[in-house]
């Protein structure tokens, strides 16, 4: 979980701060610099919700939507296979971490042996 959260926090902060490498990479995907702060704030809020045990499932659902948008953006920009698959893998890791730490989620979605 720590790896997932650290990456998401790093990603959101670099967008909010408009780091030049992020601005350039976003421009290649068709995202305007003026949109980065809003995108970064949305990601930061979703990540904080994911961190709080009482709102972790809501945070995971919102992060799934955010990462789905990343897949769509990379697909539309024809960015290649890895940029399209990475958010899917990352979302899977976020859900796996939540599944392992949340008893209610394990009860809701039991793994059959």
Write up what this structure looks like.
This protein has one domain. It has helices at 2-16, 20-28, 33-51, 56-76, 81-101, 103-108. It is mainly alpha-helical. It is 81% helix and 0% strand.
- Count of extended strands: 0
Poorly predicted tracts of residues: none
What number of structural domains do the residues give?
Answer: 1
The helix content, as a percent range, equals over 70%
User: What is the H/E string?
Assistant: HHHHHH
- Tell me the fraction of residues in β-strands, as a range: under 5%
Structural class: mainly alpha
* DSSP helical segment count: 6
Q: What is the mean predicted local confidence, pLDDT?
A: 93
Oligomer: single chain
What's this model, at a glance?
This protein is an all-alpha fold and 113 residues long. 81% of the residues lie in helices and 0% in strands.
Which keywords apply here?
mainly alpha, 81% helix, 6 helices, 113 residues
What is the fold's blueprint, element by element?
Layout: H1 2-16, H2 20-28, H3 33-51, H4 56-76, H5 81-101, H6 103-108
